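Final report, results section. Input specification for complex C-07:
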Amino acid sequence: MLVPVFTLKLNHRILPRMVALGKYDGAHPCLAAATQAGKVFIHNPHARGQHVTANRTMQSSQDSDISLLNINQGVSCLTAGVLNPQLGYDCLLIGTQTNLLAYDVYNNSDLFYREVTDGANAIVLGMLGDISSPLAIIGGNCALQGFDHEGNDLFWTVTGDNVRSLALCDFDGDGKKELLVGSEDFDIRVFKEDEIVAEMSETETITALSPMYGSRFGYALSNGTVGVYDKTARYWRIKSKNHAMSIHAFDLNSDGVCELITGWSNGKVDARSDRTGEVIFKDNFASSIAGVVEGDYRMDGNTQLICCSVDGEVRGYLPGSQEMKGNLMDTSVEQDLIRELSQKKQNLLLELRNYEENSKQAELSVQVNEADGQRGVIPANTQLQTALSVNLGSDSQAAHVELCISTSNDTIIRAVLIFAEGIFEGESHVVHPSLQNLSGRIQVPLTPPKDVPVDLHIKAFVGYRSSTQFHVFELTRQLPRFSMYALSSPDLVPEPLSFVNFTISERVQRVVMWLNQSFLLPEDAELQSAPFQVCFTSLRDAGQLCIKIKPNGEISISTDDIDLAGDIIQSMASFLAIEDLQVEADFPAYFEELRKVLVKVDEFHTVHQKLTADMADHSNLIRSMLVRAEDSRLMGDMRNMKKRYMELYDLNRDLLNEYKIRCTNHTELLNNLKSVNQAIQRAGQLRVGKPKTQVITACRDAIRNNNLNMLFRIMRVGTASL
Amino acid sequence: MGLEMEPLLQAWSYFRRRKFQLCADLCSQLLEKCPGYQEPDSEFTVSQAAWSLKTRALTEMVYVDEIDIDQEGIAEMMLDENAIAQVARPGTSLKLPGTSQGGGPSPAIRPVTQSGRPVTGFVRPSTQSGRPGTMEQAIRTPRTAHTARPITSASGRYIRLGTASMLTNPEGPFLNLSRLNLAKYAQKPKLAKALFEYIFHHENDVKNALDLAALATEHAQYKDWWWKVQIGKCYYRLGLYREAEKQFKSALKQQDMVDTILYLAKVYFRLDQPLTALHVFKQGLARFPGEVTLLCGIARIYEEMNNISLAAEYYREVLKQDNTHVEAIACIGSNHFYSDQPEIALRFYRRLLQMGVYNCQLFNNLGLCCFYAQQYDMTLTSLERALSLAENEEEAADVWYNLGHVAVGIGDLNLAYQCFKLTLANNNDHAEAYNNLAVLEIRRGHIEQARALLQTASSLAPHMYEPHFNFAALSDQVGDLQRSFIAAQKSKEAFPGHVDTQQLIKQLKQHFAML
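Structure output:
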């Protein structure tokens, strides 16, 4: 049984996920956490009694451990660590929606203060790839930026959606750290410097990532899922109705392997084995957990696990000693084992009774054959068939992909259970027709929201109409990546104006193979005469997609949807194992829209500046008015005081209105910036390998220099130079 | 009329000879000749030149160097939280005076200001009073301490300067800002700069100035460092220090300028990050070795942080570069005086006298130096001269106070008594005089009067430990131990290291323990 070695009540609320431990003077670990009203507090229990004489405005000893830092903005992320190796101590990094501050707590001075227009939703500090100095990497709206200790951004790239979590982890085992990015489009992407090396799709927004050891890392989703990945393979995951607030890797049972510590929104903290997800330790707080960190907080040479709750309770746990043999729960192993075994016995007894019942029935059934069905006996050669097809929909039903499950004889399907990630709300779907319309055939409409290949795990209950017991058929079927596109005839509709052209050095047959694998075609496409053309209609928005293949390997994809074009290229490249691919692309409608957005961004910037100046002016006025009012009060001039306070009230209301305007302006600006970042990301997505990173960096340079024509040329041809 | 100068040249000449009023008048005449002087974009380059010259002349009339204006208003002091750390480590913040680190003299020798900082040899806006604890104290302080701190930095001096625009031209302001098309001016860099300075310094309309600067810097494709500095200045005035910091830094990247460094340091000063400001100064020194303003800035910061010895070192460095630097001489002088070297201090003050500084304060200091250096013959003459040079009652009060001090020193208690009385007649807020008078009253045995005087002194200047201690000692003598203890505690708070106070408290505690 593990008990906390220390418990502190800090009397300050802690914002979720905003806890960091750092040695701001190089020796004493201090806890820094964001609290309300744009403040960050630092709890330093080690300096007690040092500056008692120094300080005129003495505080009570409880409070003197805590010093508050004014950030004057809502803190959106916070971390601590060594940013400048020459300094020899940690600095505190505080991200807000508009700025990033690197602050030297010991010397009360800034290392740098940078404006980050894309916001900072997540932050991580450490070495990345081959970059020689530690970087503070922040993830904002579709953008990632890395700053060194002077505030130079040495790293910049874009990603698919708003970043929610970041972690550094040696993903491919080459001794250098890769960046893991979890974003709101449910993807975990792995960046090797600015190149994406892997992408994993999850089922919800990724709220936390934590490196464990080697290539293993933990993750948490906003729907309460927590799990562990090893490289791209998921080890285990569990789902809870609570939300995981913070995850951390810590070796709590001293077995040399880190466990995944999770702090939950209901105040529970649990440690799970990295291999199985089995709970080896748990504890409860009175309120939601804000963060889990580790450090030698008692300065006795042992690292403790430190858990903080949102109302400022902090508990530290020492890892269990070797003698405890990893047994951290209050129940003993023996008890657990007995419970487990008796459970097993119970199950086996149940099963046995079932079999006895069945065999009894079988004996009887020689006489009464008709009753077969009731007993759940079905012909041995019964097969369950599944078929996927595209249903163009009718008036009452939107177009969708249809999964058809049928039995091979007169048996019926009582119910179907389908488990698939990301298609259904809550991941699984159950179909059980009412008793009257039971049949041997069930159609399930599917509408995958994203173009990703999905495994459908199907469980069907098969039996007779009158059966009380059913046989369960289990099978797995893969939904092709581009299942939401229906084959259409090329001549019916005009070809889209936008296109992507590229040349590959593969045989056309291989491309056709890819086509068969990725699309739901009524019959496998045969290699007809080259040039070869197929056309599809999207089931989502009826957009057209046209793929033309020429015998010399020139492929052109025409579609108005730039995302789709990117997906197709990425999918084709991974199927054909193409490492570098340069393409020529033109999306006139999309580019025009982007141009408008960029113009708007400029306008918003100007308006923003004006509003800021106005507000500063007004707040100056308010301050002077307040002082005047107070002055009148001190002099006992009540009439003037009243007048002043009335004026103050009016001005305050104005200021509030102005603030609302500014807020709207800012949100608009953010949305526009996001779409610009997304555009760059999409332009990159059209290329593979080196050309992709080139396009992204070139686009950024163009935006920095405000050179729109250059930007569009890069998006079209892929390079800045002609 | 014989020879007459070309009018524009004459206006130019007036401008060079700093006869701005004449210059402006002449320019107005020139502009009246060609109509539409509000629109200098016409082809008449002469009118453009006259227009530009007039704006410059009007600006110069009210120009105050932005670097040296540092007025933190009451409102900023009380209501803003620009500083990141609320309670920073001692020695890293200007808010907490803390103990002296550089081994400067203790408050027993060198008096402290209200904020607990030793008095300096040179009066700057920020040296006079520190940061008060409450709004009430903040509002009261300027009334008693004669600091004339403005309500906000946007009011105060700037407003007074801004009203200049009304006075110079009885028929209305020269330019009607609301009618100006700023975007058009921003296209013409030469006119825009003059116009900006006019709006910023003369009209004092920071918002419009910022608009103009923003447009102009855009026109210059963000390549003109001058505009960036101006935008930074506007932000600084508006209290947007972080934005200002960004602009100054960006300007410094393009062009190394001493001015920009000073502005940037000012920003950090406001953000209460003295170490960052020092870092900025030191970086600046690497690029401009021996630059006096930078050295002086460093010295000021050290002085504000109570690191007197380092401050003196940098003031010396200043003198090596510029041996006529009044501030450095005065500060080193006062430092020597308070570190018990009045003879050396005397040399510094004489140097000031040689340089033509001829005022009451200097003679006052000279007199005191002479007194402590035992040159009694010079003492009284110096102080007499100081008295004759005193411009107002406060100054006279100070001189009388010092005379009283001298009288105590030579043992003429009657004279001392009268001098302190005269001090109070001149300035009835003089806490030190109340205190000293009370001590004299104690000697005469007038306990009740002494007690009243001490109470007045401690309420006027709660930061001084002397009245508290004297009160404690007096109460102890008459047996009022409770009051004595309370006063002793206050004294300890004001000056923790005071040995006598500590002994008194110890003694009192023993008494209480016995009871």
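The mean pLDDT of chain B is 79. Chain B touches chain A through 59 residues (CB under 8 Å). This concludes the modelling results for the funded period.
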